[in-house]
Specification:
The mean pLDDT is 94. The protein has 19 helices and ten strands. Helix 2 packs across helix 3, helix 7 runs parallel beside helix 11 and helix 17 runs antiparallel to helix 18. An eight-stranded parallel barrel has the order 3-4-5-6-7-8-9-10, surrounded by seven helices. A two-stranded antiparallel ribbon has the order 1-2. It is α/β, with parallel strands linked by helices and 428 residues long. It holds the Pfam family ThiC_Rad_SAM. GO terms for molecular function: 4 iron, 4 sulfur cluster binding; metal ion binding; phosphomethylpyrimidine synthase activity. Keywords: 4Fe-4S, Iron, Iron-sulfur, Lyase, Metal-binding, S-adenosyl-L-methionine, Zinc.
Length: 428
């Protein structure tokens, strides 16, 4: 049996025990969450790895990083470096979004090297191979698409973003109502073009049961991709987005009934005043399954700083129920990220997750904050390093002050007013 079937049978898996220990919750809480679909554990039955995580209600928010080759930059060695950097920075998963070079080789390298969950977007490979073999994405067949999905599942992918919540009814709504940014999802645009050219329904929607059979066989978490996510704050919560969310909700119900772990991908560009509504709609319409968000980008006008806009939106989204944050790097909207961009993206997103976890009153998270505050009052450098989200930058700053007995970040003065007050109150 897979994770969800085992949970529904009242049994506990090793993965559930690991998640419970990490999250400092009872294992029965995890088992029940998996059984009801509120928690997923991305773990392909064919893949072994050292780090397991749970995603969903009542757990810490998780952070995802992106890697992958493209036709513009086919450097598997660079992607390996980025993978290592992202893991060291504390990400909980990767998605391999390769669209160029040796896609199969890149996927196998990622799966064999990563110690965390790995996901993919199989329509990328199916579309690229259709271009190579048939001259165009529109030449792709339904069988081509499902063969790619099964190949990636058999290789060990733990979760997959599949753009199945897209159909002609949604496209007709999009054409009728209009948008500023139309379709910005790469997978969504691949399938929209395919559908309009061939005048056929999206095979991932039309043959959804075929997809579920593959997901269940390998215990892959189905991440229902947001094919028509808003690409600007102006398009947030428009009719097309809401209709897509309703279709996704119907598919979630079918996935859960079939015994498949499932989560929902979401927007995208979302102004802060729309975050709470967006989260409530998703949870309500999609049966409270975990929500994996791509941002949220709180503003459109900060190219070069989208790790910050994403962290702002991500913190608000996490506070209102988002369970899984995909990182944004400073390279978003500019080009492909380098190694430094990846590190910055992971850390920025972890900060957003931490802020949201505090708002969600996660006990061990709040205790970590308290211990950091006490370590600062005590000027205990070792404890500060243990608690810091990115200790290396703190260590570098401390090394500059190593010739002094006093390490005050505010003034650097041995005769420190803060310490005088701390001694007076007996907390120095």
């Amino acid at each position: 049996m897979n994770q969800i079937e085992t949970a529904r049978a009242g049994k506990v898996t090793e993965e559930m025990e690991i998640v419970a220990l990490q999250e400092q919750v009872e294992v029965e809480f995890v088992r029940k969450g998996v059984a009801e679909g509120r928690i997923v554990i991305p773990k392909n039955r064919l893949r072994n790895r050292s780090k397991i995580c749970g995603i969903g209600a009542g757990l810490d928010i998780k952070v995802n990083a992106l890697i992958g080759t493209s036709s513009d930059r086919d450097q598997m060695d660079m992607e390996m470096k980025k993978l290592r950097i992202a893991e060291e920075a504390g990400c909980h998963s990767f998605m391999d979004l390769s669209t160029g070079g040796d896609i199969d080789g890149m996927r196998k390298q990622t799966l064999s090297s990563a110690n965390v969950a790995v996901g993919s977007v199989p329509v990328y490979q199916a579309g690229v191979e259709a271009i190579d073999k048939k001259g165009s994405i529109v030449g792709m067949t339904s069988d081509d698409l499902f063969e790619t999905i099964e190949k990636q599942a058999a290789d060990g992918m733990d979760f997959m973003a599949v753009h199945c919540a897209l159909n002609f009814d949604i496209i007709n709504t999009l054409q009728k109502t209009g948008r500023v940014t139309d379709v910005v999802s790469r997978g969504g645009s691949f399938l929209t073009g395919w559908m309009l050219q061939n005048q056929k329904e999206n095979p991932l929607y039309e043959e959804f049961d075929r997809l579920l059979k593959i997901m269940k066989a390998y215990d892959v978490v189905l991440s229902i991709g947001d094919a028509i996510r808003p690409g600007s704050t102006a398009d947030s919560l428009d009719q097309s987005q809401i209709k897509g969310l309703m279709v996704a909700g119907d598919l979630v119900k079918r996935a859960l009934a079939a015994g498949v772990q499932v989560m929902i991908e979401g927007p995208g560009h979302v102004p802060l005043n729309h975050v709470k509504t967006t989260m409530e709609l998703q949870k309500r319409l999609c049966h409270n399954v975990p929500y994996y968000i791509l941002g949220f980008l709180a503003t459109d006008i900060a190219p070069g700083y989208d790790n910050i806009t994403g962290a702002i939106g991500g913190a608000f989204a996490g506070m209102h129920g988002a369970d899984f944050l995909c990182y944004l790097t400073p390279a978003e909207h500019l080009g492909l990220p380098n190694e430094d961009d990846v590190r910055t993206g992971v850390i920025s997103t972890r900060i957003a997750a931490q802020a949201a976890n505090i708002a969600r009153k996660r006990g061990h998270v709040i205790n970590n904050e308290l211990q950091m505050a006490k370590a600062r009052v005590e000027m205990n450098l070792d404890k500060q390093l243990q608690r810091a989200i990115h200790p290396e930058i703190l260590k570098q700053a401390m090394n500059k002050q190593k010739d002094s007995d006093h390490h005050c970040s505010a003034c650097g003065d041995d005769d420190c007013a803060m310490q005088v007050a701390a001694k007076y109150f007996g907390i120095a």
